[in-house]
Design a protein that fits this description.
two-stranded parallel sheet; 7% strand; 5 strands; 14 helices; 3-stranded parallel beta sheet; binds tryptophan; mainly alpha
Length: 338
Amino acid sequence: MQHSAAKLPVILTGDRTTGPLHLGHYVGSLKNRVSLQTTHQQYLLLADSQALTDNAHDPGRVRDNILEIATDYLAVGIDPNVTTICLQSHLPALADLTLLYLNFVTVARLERNPTIKDEIQARGFGRDIPAGFLCYPVAQAADITGFKATIVPVGEDQAPLIEQTNEIVRRINRQAGVAVLPEARALIPGVGRLPGIDGKGKMSKSQGNTIQLSASPDEICEAVRLMFTDPNHIKASDPGRIEGNVVFTYLDAFDEDRTGVEDLKARYIRGGLGDSIVKKRLNDVLQELLAPIRDRRRSLASDPGYVLQIVRRGTEQAREITEMTLREVRAALGLFAL
Ligand code: TRP
């Protein structure tokens, strides 16, 4: 599309539209997406249909977060002239591909998918799992192959979904007798998952331990104030621990002054450095990181028509591409064309 002259490798990734994005998304993927967009043909999928597979009781949430997330993308520096932002539910070819692929997957295989297994347990579904949820890996295979993406930047927990996608690709190609679809590989970020401010697990909206990209200066201050450190570091003169100390984990993730961080660590371990000084540094770093994002967010929010138009235009471009793939797959399989 935008890069029609040079054929760049195709990247597709997406987000379930269940809540606005936070700092965990920023280090884990948004930052990468901003740099990858210049060297790759990048598609960002607002995965509202997938969000519905475990949020059918709350469609308003799925709806309201579509433009929120699109706004987050633009605020962190996604350039809509090089990255295509598109809406899953408005790409009917993806639903058609899903229906087709379902014939190439067994229920046993879906139930064995480690991502799904973990999620069934985490959500307490048991056997009462919505069929749409059990099948979402097939829909995700449709997302990936619909754009013929060969690189899929996702968290480690999603790697089994890429494996399942490639199994479907091989089955389709074998049945077709030609390589109509390419296989894809997961691009797993080098940095691990950012813990929540309570240090109890990954940053996640459902845990209430996040810092939103839209956080106000006061909200950032408060989050840093509450942040989990070393519970045994009571007096400033006590030697402190760095491991599991969220303030230092965040400094490692966000502070570009590496020598400064190493110096703080050494002083903290030795004893004589209070939490408040380390927290002050982190607060400064986060305020500086989030201020321009928040400002861009605010000016984008004052013109929702603009964000809507970006999503509309991206979805139209994506529609052409995914429909072309659907036609090719159907033809390769020798299905009827009217
Ligand atoms: N499953 C991804 C998530 O939970 C969202 C997603 C939907 C996605 N379709 C995708 C990711 C295709 C990568 C490729 O955030």
